């Protein structure tokens, strides 16, 4: 498998250490060789991170903001270099790699600038019964956060955890995918350079560990204060089992089977354009990519014509004019092929493309119709440039079918009716929905990102993302003597009479709903 060829090497201290290779998925060229970190190396990184976390968490919000914004500027200035590295390791077009970095920059900027306002101490009401107390809540850093990143968006996705965790005052140990280790190394080294060259800081606030799945398992059971994982649901279950050994909380983003809904009054050109891009960009290797489309019957055939026209113009390749790149993970080609075969065997047919679209490492676009809901192409994550299109009687039926999936990550609704769009968006079980666009929620830094069910749990991005990497601390302070004693062995029967009377007056009134006139 590309990116996981293992060989031994002999370091200067004489012990044999295994290595693996990072490979260009389009050409097979070996890009670099990295060492496989084991229990010893991961434990050392976490131990160093604990010391760094004490320093980093002790900085003021203003000081952390300065450092993160300086890193943001560095990423912006050297965007071209990073985009080329993303292209080399994933195969995605340079423009797509650049847009991924642009979104990362916007999120890092938001996290740095909003951490104080989101996490600073705030007063809360105590209520009449606790009038003698003042109360506040604040959000403290967790300490050390472990991040296990994916290969499909090797900058944007892990940085949704790294940037927000750093802004919240934590140190981070980052294990990138073995397929995109070079990108992970570049991110970690760039942050270290900014800290040392601009501010003179030497603490290892952001560290890298490299390796295959076993290295991720070591990080999961290393005792970090929280683990952020992005990957498949089966792998997430293994990560959760490993993290359970130390009761480490986990934030898991596990992919999706996102649906795009098209109402009878939708702008079909816009819907077809969104479906084509949402399904085929990045070779379909997008966790919030469009994999299912449900179209109201009256516009079904018109929509299919427009979608087919758009996908017919798409071409995968490694050259500058290619629409999208190869399948980054070679094994994913087999999944695509299995889903196409299963759909065909169950009576589905390819309106565009088909089994002959699979030409590893590339898969040309496939549009499937008449695919039963119980088929793998409708139920399982395909993670390739394949989309199913199904007619429905109404938008309500589309919502019902979309919600029948065990996944619940993102979704899209196309309709000209504002109320209808919001009503459908709220009814969809997914964690995020775009109305009259696709995947736009990911580009809004203030919005939380995440799902439920097989799509995982927890949130990155926005205020929820900052709080995800902090612990809530509640503080009360007695500023006057209590009117009645409750938490004391000196409490008397008079104290009890007073508190019962007070609660009865405040809460004992019989509730009678107001009747509407007319």
UniProtKB/TrEMBL annotation:
<dbReference type="GO" id="GO:0016620">
    <property type="term" value="F:oxidoreductase activity, acting on the aldehyde or oxo group of donors, NAD or NADP as acceptor"/>
</dbReference>
<dbReference type="InterPro" id="IPR012394">
    <property type="entry name" value="Aldehyde_DH_NAD(P)"/>
</dbReference>
<dbReference type="GO" id="GO:0006081">
    <property type="term" value="P:aldehyde metabolic process"/>
</dbReference>
<keyword id="KW-0560">Oxidoreductase</keyword>
<dbReference type="InterPro" id="IPR016162">
    <property type="entry name" value="Ald_DH_N"/>
</dbReference>
<feature type="domain" description="Aldehyde dehydrogenase">
    <location>
        <begin position="18"/>
        <end position="475"/>
    </location>
</feature>
<protein>
    <recommendedName>
        <fullName>Aldehyde dehydrogenase</fullName>
    </recommendedName>
</protein>
<dbReference type="InterPro" id="IPR016163">
    <property type="entry name" value="Ald_DH_C"/>
</dbReference>
<dbReference type="Pfam" id="PF00171">
    <property type="entry name" value="Aldedh"/>
</dbReference>
<feature type="active site">
    <location>
        <position position="287"/>
    </location>
</feature>
<dbReference type="InterPro" id="IPR016161">
    <property type="entry name" value="Ald_DH/histidinol_DH"/>
</dbReference>
<dbReference type="InterPro" id="IPR015590">
    <property type="entry name" value="Aldehyde_DH_dom"/>
</dbReference>
<feature type="active site">
    <location>
        <position position="253"/>
    </location>
</feature>
<comment type="similarity">
    <text>Belongs to the aldehyde dehydrogenase family.</text>
</comment>
<dbReference type="InterPro" id="IPR029510">
    <property type="entry name" value="Ald_DH_CS_GLU"/>
</dbReference>
């Amino acid at each position: 498998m590309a990116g996981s060829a293992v060989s031994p090497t002999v370091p200067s201290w004489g012990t044999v250490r295994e290595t693996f290779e990072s490979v260009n998925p389009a050409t097979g060229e070996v890009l670099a060789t990295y060492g496989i970190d084991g229990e010893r190396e991961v434990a050392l990184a976490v131990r160093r991170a604990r010391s760094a976390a004490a320093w980093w968490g002790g900085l003021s919000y203003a000081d952390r903001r300065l450092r993160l914004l300086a890193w943001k500027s560095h990423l912006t200035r050297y965007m071209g270099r990073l985009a080329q590295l993303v292209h080399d390791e994933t195969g995605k077009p340079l423009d797509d790699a650049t847009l991924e970095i642009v979104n990362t920059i916007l999120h890092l900027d938001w996290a740095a600038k909003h951490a104080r306002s989101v996490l600073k101490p705030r007063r809360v009401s105590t209520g009449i019964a606790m009038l003698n107390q003042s109360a506040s809540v604040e959000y403290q850093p967790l300490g050390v956060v472990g991040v296990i990143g994916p290969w499909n968006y090797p900058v944007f996705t892990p940085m949704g955890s790294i940037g927000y965790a750093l802004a919240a005052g934590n140190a981070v140990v980052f294990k990138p995918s073995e397929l995109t280790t070079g990108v992970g190394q570049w991110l970690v080294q760039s942050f270290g350079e900014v800290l040392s060259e601009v501010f003179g800081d030497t603490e290892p606030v952001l560290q890298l560990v490299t390796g295959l799945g076993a290295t991720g398992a070591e990080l999961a059971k290393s005792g970090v204060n929280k683990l952020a994982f992005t990957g498949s649901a089966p792998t997430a279950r293994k990560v959760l089992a490993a993290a359970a050994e130390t009761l480490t909380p986990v934030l898991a983003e596990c992919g999706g089977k996102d649906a795009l809904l098209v109402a009878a009054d939708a702008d079909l050109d816009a819907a077809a354009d969104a479906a084509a891009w949402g399904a085929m960009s990045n070779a379909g290797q997008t966790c919030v990519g469009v994999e299912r489309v449900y179209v109201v019957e009256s516009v079904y055939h018109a929509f299919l014509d427009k979608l087919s026209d758009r996908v017919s113009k798409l071409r995968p390749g490694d050259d500058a004019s290619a629409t999208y790149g190869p399948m980054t993970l070679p094994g994913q080609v087999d999944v695509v092929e299995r889903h196409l075969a299963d759909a065909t065997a169950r009576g589905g047919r390819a309106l565009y493309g088909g089994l002959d679209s699979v030409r590893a490492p590339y898969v040309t676009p496939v549009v499937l119709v008449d695919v039963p809901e119980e088929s793998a192409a409708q139920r399982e994550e395909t993670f390739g440039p394949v989309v199913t299109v199904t007619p429905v009687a109404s938008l309500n039926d589309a919502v019902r079918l979309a919600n029948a999936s065990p996944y619940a990550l993102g979704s899209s609704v196309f309709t000209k009716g504002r109320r209808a769009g919001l009503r459908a968006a709220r009814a969809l079980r997914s964690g995020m929905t775009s109305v009259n666009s696709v995947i736009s929620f990911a580009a809004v830094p203030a919005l939380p990102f995440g799902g439920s069910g097989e799509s995982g749990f927890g949130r990155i991005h926005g205020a929820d993302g900052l709080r995800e990497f902090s612990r809530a601390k509640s503080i009360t302070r007695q500023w006057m003597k209590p009117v009645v004693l409750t938490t004391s062995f000196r409490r008397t029967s008079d104290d009890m009479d007073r508190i019962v009377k007070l609660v009865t007056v405040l809460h004992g009134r019989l509730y009678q709903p107001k009747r509407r006139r007319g």
